[in-house]
Amino acid sequence: MSILPPCPQCQSEFTYEDGNLLICPSCGHEWNPAEAAVADVTKVWKDANGNVLQDGDTVTLVKDLKIKGSSSVVKVGTKVKNIRLIEGDHDIDCKIEGFGPMQLKTEFVKKA
Prior knowledge:
By secondary structure, the protein is mainly beta. It has one helix at residues 33-41; strands at 16-18, 21-23, 30-31, 59-61, 65-66, 73-74, 79-80, 84-85, 92-96, 100-104, 109-111. It has a three-stranded antiparallel beta sheet with strand order 1-2-3. A three-stranded antiparallel beta sheet has the order 7-4-11, with no helix packed on it. It has a three-stranded antiparallel beta sheet with strand order 8-9-10, with no helix packed on it. 11% of the residues are buried. Residues 46-112 form the Protein YjdM C-terminal domain. Residues 4-32 form the Protein YjdM N-terminal domain. Pfam families: YjdM, Zn_Ribbon_YjdM.
């Protein structure tokens, strides 16, 4: 019995093969495992200036950011140390001094 990868959309473990495609019965997503492997390798995160970002980098905000559910604002020029890059709409997982843990978009930061 071969071990198949989980669904890239819903992370369901119940995927099955149909020809050269993998199918998820939970969400109905179909994908080619060879193409998915290439897409994962080529993911590159870039800041507002086009510089490549990596885990552990220090970045600076290029725009004032309102904090959802609060009246606080993280000001332009705030340094964020030791970022962690993640998949999703918000690409950066970090901790900002005075504000706590949050997620940022790469388009609002520049590499320090």
